From TrEMBL:
Organism, as annotated: Enterococcus viikkiensis
Ranges of residues in domain Enoyl reductase (ER): 10-306
Protein name in the entry: NADP-dependent oxidoreductase
Keyword NADP in annotation: yes
InterPro entries: ADH-like_N, ER, GroES-like_sf, NAD(P)-bd_dom_sf
Keywords: NADP, Oxidoreductase
Domain of life: Bacteria
Amino acid sequence: MKRFAIKDYGAAKDVLTEIEGEPRPVDETHVRVEIVTFAINPYDVALRQGAMRAFRKVTFPYVLGNDGAGIVTEVGKDITHVKVGDEVIVHAISGTYGEEIVVPGKKIVKKPAAMSWEVAAGAVTPWLTTYNLVTHLLGDQVGETVMVQGASGAVGSLLVQFLKAQGKTVLASAAKRNEALVRQLGVDQFVAYDEADAGEIFADQADTVIDATKGGRAGKAGMEIMKAGGNFVALNDLPTEQIKQGNYFSFGPSKEYSDAEALTALADFSQQLHLTIAEVLPFDLASVIEGHERLEGHPAAGKIIVKKAAE
């Protein structure tokens, strides 16, 4: 069984390698899935670089990958929601970079027939962030007007769509080159951060500001946009100096959130969901290295997907 792993921390071309994995047994609560597509995420890049080593211990060779989609080939006796032959969406702790994976049944959900393999793999982590942030972290406190910074990214674009589906007024910022993409998602107002100051234009307008950027100057603009006493949620580090009174949250994954709940919601939302796919690469080591290297730069908006060729 072909799998793509890191043999150490370091540059993609130096540490990513192809290994032959041994199939794992399937117990009563697990499912074996033949992977068709998997997504390459910024988290994978950070893990490979060693940025997570202080709190995420790994044993080399380590197979990366949390997000995938594929076909069920074996199910444990306690599994009732999927059967052999079903097409499924997978969220794993690790290991989707390969030809198959064994995961707990609670980590998969049936893929809607109309959902492409590329979107099924690419939407997983961005959707989990979107759904849990809006539904569980904020809940009824989200307010009626929400600012999404970084609205062209995978998380940002799904936030826009999910919030609009709930009837919210959505303000957004992104680079000028991504304006058309963001406007197509239905935002109410847009500012290109590389042409104008969103903090000045949208000052004191948002009940909640969600910073879905990589951090940096967006934090100050976001605080200016937040109403006094509102919510500021960062997917990266919170601003070191909080210039306005409000509720400040740094959002990240939590064991308190149910994958089964969020993945079921993803399947239910799939007909309205749009996810930009930047590139679909062949199922080989060179593609994995290329995907990692692209994410380290300033890639175009959209997910990078690795897909197995149709047999």
